Amino acid sequence: MIIYNYGNTFDYELEKLSRLFLPFERIDVVNGEVAENDRFAITKTDFDAKGCNISASLCLSGKVEKCDLYEEKRGDFQKICQLSLASCLFECFVRITGYKPSWGILTGVRPARLFISKAQELGYENAVEFFENTLKVSDKKIKLLTETAKSEDEIISLSGDNSFSLYLSIPFCPGRCSYCSFVSHSIDRSADIIPKYIELLCSELKLTGQIARDLGLKLETVYMGGGTPTTLSANQMEKVLSSVFSNFDFKDCREFTVEAGRPDTITKEKFSVIKDFGISRISINPQTLNDNVLKEIGRGHTAQMFYDSFYLAREMGFGCINTDLIAGLPGDNFESFKNTISEIIKLSPENVTVHSLSMKRASTLTAVGFSPEIDAGIEASKMVDYARERLIDADILPYYMYRQSKTVGNLENVGYSKQGFEGLYNVFIMDETHTVLACGASAATKLKSYKTGNISRIFNFKYPYEYISRYDELMERKEKIYEFYKNL
Fold it and tell me: How many other CB atoms are there within 10 angstroms of residue 428's CB atom?
């Protein structure tokens, strides 16, 4: 489809909006004469002394719709016009397709953060009205938004000016799931470099711990992710965890999470190592309990292997277990997803994270041409709504939420938790609450100024072999942390 845009520079925003309805179609935004085509949009803003005439016309396969508005000059006029033009084009799409995305014209990844900001600026009731009338967000999503915003706000308030979180990257997996785009490497192909990787990771942890002590930073949370950290052997994991605990002050640390992730990497020996360090918060992620779907997405384990891992974790005394699920997976449907939710609730985990399938450019699913359209989005929407209802009934409540681009149905990812078991790191990282010192390949350190809110990033090299071969160069980058805090 071609969008012919006149009188403004809102090209990027209009393209993103159109992708809510045409996620896999090529969309070009141009300025010029309208060419003969049966799939195009014409968007115009015509400014005068008092305000702006706004119009959008849409033609899809011979169906034509038009929407007009006039906005008088007020407030942030450019932003108002941008939202109004997006609203006009949105209405045209809804009329032609019969499909109304529940998040309206909102495409940002942190809607709760936006809501908190608007509530502070306009007051709670006016913020709700803004999301409903201007952004076209459904009542159901506004309710989810207000619930998670309240919880996120409470967690954010725990962080002080000198707080930080620590992230450890273990970028290895037993195999790559078809929906995944993370930089991770098969354990079979990477076995030879893992010992050297761990040696250098421990060295980086030592340096990073020294920096944190020198700057008087207070450790709030630790997250060991990847990849799948439990692809490491028990001895390798013990070495990494020993380095963490010997180089950082845990006096004020509120939580430590290890992402066990794939059930096919879990052993009693590895769990024993994690428990010996006093870590009680882990993730065991089935994504679905449908064996046919697990096979189709390349997970390499069965539903029974997930159950076995979960029961083992309980037997060994893990008191906080998260399970990740994904709505909209290929081969899954509403009935089988309902079964997954019901079975998970029977296990009574402390946390459940319900993701919506995101079609990442680098994933295998995208490469082979899997392209879920509007019907798949509607089905996925039923899935996440059902999950929400059942989990809330089980007193597992939403506490944080974020969104990703190219998500089936333009849906969201929601973390649910029993009261008192909320994952603080999840909120801190998504809100960019405070500094995150990150170690390992593909990790990104985010330095936050508590005075201005500005973020400065230091990127580690993406791939393990690069991390190893250019380690000295990476350590020089770490010196910038001192410079950042010196300038505060």
Answer: 26
Query: How many other C-beta atoms are found inside a 10 Å radius of the C-beta of residue 242?
Result: 14
Q: In what order do the strands lie in the sheet with 63-72?
A: 28-30, 2-6, 39-47, 51-60, 63-72
Joined tokens for residue 85:
């033009």
Distance of CA 478 to the CA centre of its chain: 26
Q: How many helices (H) and strands (E) does the chain have?
A: 18, 18
| pTM greater than 0.85 | yes
pLDDT, mean of residues 404-413: 86
Residue 50 has, within 13 A of its CA and on its CB side, a CA count of 4
Chosen domain end from 52, 70, 100: 100
> Is residue 484, in this structure, part of any structural domain at all?
no
Give the dihedral sign, CA 447/160/169/198. positive
- Tokens 């195999």 found at: 175
Domain assignment present for residue 126? The answer is: no
CA dihedral of residues 477, 478, 483, 488 (deg, nearest 10): 130
Name the residue with tokens 């989810």.
144
Domain containing residue 163: 158-473
Query: pLDDT digit string (tens) for 92-113?
Result: 999 998 889 899 999 888 898 8
Q: Which two tokens stand for residue 61?
A: 């396969």
Number of domain units in the chain = 2
User: Tens digit of pLDDT for each residue in 237-274?
Assistant: 999 999 999 999 999 999 999 999 899 999 999 999 99
Alpha-carbon distance values, 350 to 262, 319, 385, 416 (Å): 18, 8, 20, 8
Beta strand segments in 346-432, E: 351-356, 397-403, 412-417
Q: Is residue 467 part of a domain?
A: yes
Q: In terms of DSSP bridges, do strands 63-72 and 163-170 run parallel, antiparallel, or are they unpaired?
A: unpaired
Residue 79, helix vs strand vs coil: helix
Range in 81-90, 109-118, 395-404 the model is least confident about: 109-118
Spatial contact of 320 and 353, defined as CB atoms under 8 Å apart = no
Evaluated on CA atoms 439, 313, 335, 401, the torsion sign reads negative
Q: Burial letters for 41-68: b for 16+ Cβ neighbours within 10 Å, e otherwise?
A: bbbbbebeeebbebbbbbbbeeeebebe
Same domain, 243 and 387: yes
**C-alpha R_g of the chain:** 24
Give a yes or no: residue 482 inside a domain.
Answer: no
Task: Give 308-361 pLDDT, tens digit per residue.
Answer: 999 999 999 999 999 999 999 988 999 999 999 999 999 999 999 999 988 655
CB 471 within 8 A of CB 200: yes
**How many angstroms separate the CA atoms of 138 and 11, rounded?**
25
CA distance 439 to 211: 13
